Amino acid sequence: MGLFDNILKGDESLFLDEIALDFDYIPKVLKHRENEQQYVATCIKPLLQERSGRNLFITGKPGIGKTAAIKWVLRELKQETNDIYPIFINCWKHDTSFKIVNYICEQLGYTFTHNKKTDELMNNVAAIINKKAAVFVFDEADKLQEPGVIYNLFEEINKKSIILITNDENYISELDPRIKSRLLLDALVFRPYNFEETKSILKERRDFAFAKNVWEEVAFENIVKKSYELKDIRTGLHLMKEAGVLAENTSSKKIKNEHATKIIENLKAYKLKDSTELTEDQKITLSLVKENSGKSIKELHEIYEKRYGQVPYRTFFDRIKQLERIGNISTKDKEGPGKSNIVTYGTVKKLNEF
Ligand SMILES: Nc1ncnc2c1ncn2[C@@H]1O[C@H](COP(=O)(O)OP(=O)(O)OP(=O)(O)O)[C@@H](O)[C@H]1O
Ligand SMILES: [Mg+2]
Domain range for residue 235? Predict the structure, then answer.
């Protein structure tokens, strides 16, 4: 074996298809959630027979496939029929009645929304949907600022299934009694995956995302263990990606246990979220950091203002710190004269920073 056989060359990559590690990637097969998906399908099924569907309240810990399972069902539904509108609303992004109704219009391809009030748009939406039927999914429902919109949709739409998803088990008890009593929600609790299930899910994503044989088995096993311990697939995906990036940064042809261990040790106690759940401001700031990784907050603030208009430094600073807490970026104090805060995209540190 030559001295340099284990060194990754400039044009080589350990990744085959990095997208398969994205949190919002929907795998072709969603294993170990067949029962839950079946249950959701049963609630929707009456819509296919021109009756109204059942309404559903889904809970479960973060990162265990609630969103993925529902998106998967909606995708199947779309392939099955044109008679039911599948409408998926992320309440983190769309949290007021106005935003939600506008978003539904967009989903329906209805473009005459300019200068119209929420009520008027709601009537337009109802007129369109009532020719058919609809499934409304409110993901992260606890983020809704105006839950009354659920009630309005319930009243206005004839044939529908309304599905609420949240981590917060108590959400339902805090919900407006008026909504609760009308919706008659069925409850579906997603249980966390066991060790074998966690392993097979992560293995499948690994095989899509990485080139063949780049993983040392023990490195992968350790990531599975951590992911199982935290009962969170999202963490497993994040760890695999970061271990891969770290291995590449050190020009290693294999993702070794030392890479996995370092990344696991470095895992922050934050809840990883997919980028679709960020606000518009957060998204813009994040892409700015991505483009300008390594610059100080002050420099980033200047670039931001040139491009997007004025925003107080303090607000921008807080936004950066928030993104750091969510886990998309990291900041580091640079000591010395003119002390500054350097921002880097991603959470992987260089080897000498561990
Ligand atoms: N059975 C599965 N097969 C393949 N991938 C899965 C499975 N379950 C979860 N995942 C993946 O794990 C990640 C997290 O899943 P998802 O976003 O559905 O979690 P969640 O339960 O909605 O979490 P949260 O409550 O934080 O929103 C996603 O990338 C998803 O594709
Ligand atoms: Mg989710």
Answer: 194-265
Shortest-distance Cα residue to atom 26 of ligand 1: 62
pLDDT greater at residue 26 or residue 327: 26
Give the integer Cα–Cα distance in Å for 281 and 257: 37
Residues 220 and 245 in one domain: yes
Residue 354: band (very low, low, confident or very high) from pLDDT cuts 50, 70, 90: very low
* Total number of domains in the chain: 3
Q: pLDDT tens, 136-152?
A: 999 999 889 899 999 99
Q: Which of 72, 75, 191, 233 to mutate to test the pocket of ligand 1 (most atoms within 8 A of CB)?
A: 233
β-strand partners of 84: 133
Q: Whose CA is nearest to atom 28 of ligand 1?
A: 23
Say which CATH number the domain at 306 has: 1.10.10.10
Nearest ligand, measured from the Cα of 200: 1
Domain end residue (candidates: 172, 189, 206): 189
Q: 231: left (phi > 0), else alpha (psi -120 to 50), else beta?
A: left
Q: Measure the CA–CA gap between 45 and 350, rounded to whole angstroms.
A: 52
Query: Looking at the structure, do residues 72 and 178 belong to the same domain, yes or no?
Result: yes
Residue 56 sits in the same domain as residue 111: yes
User: Which ligand 1 atom is nearest residue 167's CA?
Assistant: 25
**Rounded to 5, what percent of the chain is helix, strand, coil?**
50, 15, 35
Tell me the pLDDT tens digit for each residue of 40-64.
999 999 999 989 999 999 999 989 9
Q: How far is the CA of 130 from the centre of ligand 1 (A)?
A: 32
Q: What is the pTM of this model?
A: 0.77
- Looking at the CA of 31, which ligand is closest? 1
Find residue 138's DSSP bridge partners: 89, 164
CA of 108 to the centre of ligand 2 (A): 23
Q: What is the CATH number of the domain that holds 114?
A: 3.40.50.300
Atom of ligand 1 nearest to the CA of 30: 3
